[in-house]
Amino acid sequence: MAEDLAIITGNKETQYQSLIPQIKGLLEGETDLVANMANVVAALKEQFGWLWVGFYVVKNEELVLAPFQGPVACTRIKKGRGVCGSSWASSTTLIVPDVEKFPGHIACSSLSKSEIVVPVIRNNEVVAVLDVDDEKYDQFDITDKEYLEEIVNLINF
């Protein structure tokens, strides 16, 4: 597939429905995990313009920063800490409308106001999380949850 995305406007669901086939095209035939995570992150950032989009992978009982786009980020996160560590610990997607109200939130960027974290589960274990932050409050909802969960399932971890 060409490296250019067809960025569309419209409601969130329409944007995801246009983006998913393009992500599938980016992933098709590529077996390198880092390359695939990088392209997924870039596609999401380009389509939606969120503040920060990236992966953390589980290594030695910590989440370790992986491909991302946005401001510099926290490098390591312990299980159960912050939104990412809590999503890892619970194996569930977490939607946080106001990060300042999340107990134990880790403020990697003071610009972040809302967040969604999607665990990547393989063989009943979390192997990574997709973390998305935005500068606006209450930016993420069930539509994001459903489509981002579908997108992480496209990647061969």
SSE blueprint:
Blueprint: H1 12-27, H2 33-48, E1 52-59, E2 62-69, E3 76-78, H3 82-90, E4 94-96, E5 114-122, E6 125-134, H4 142-152
Antiparallel strand pairs: 1-2, 1-6, 2-3, 4-5, 5-6
Helix pairs in contact: 1-2, 1-4
Question: What does this 3D model show about the protein?
Answer:
It is a single chain. This protein has one domain (about 10-150): 2-Layer Sandwich (Beta-Lactamase), CATH 3.30.450.40. The chain has four helices and six strands. It has helices at about 10-25, 35-50, 80-90, 140-150, and strands at about 50-60, 60-70, 75-80, 95, 115-120, 125-135. A six-stranded antiparallel beta sheet has the order 3-2-1-6-5-4, sandwiched between helices. The protein is globular. The model has no long low-confidence stretch (mean pLDDT about 95).
Query: How many helices in DSSP terms?
Result: 4
What are the secondary-structure elements, in order, as H or E?
HHEEEHEEEH
β content, as a range? Answer: 25-35%
- Sheet of most strands: 6 strands, antiparallel
Q: From the alpha-carbon coordinates, what is the Rg to the nearest angstrom? A: 15 Å
Shape: globular
Alpha-beta content class: alpha+beta
pLDDT averaged residue by residue: 94
CATH superfamily: GAF domain
CATH topology: Beta-Lactamase
* CATH second-level architecture: 2-Layer Sandwich
Question: Can you describe this structure in just a few lines?
Answer:
With 157 residues, the chain is of the alpha+beta class. The protein has helices spanning 12-27, 33-48, 82-90, 142-152; strands at residues 52-59, 62-69, 76-78, 94-96, 114-122, 125-134.
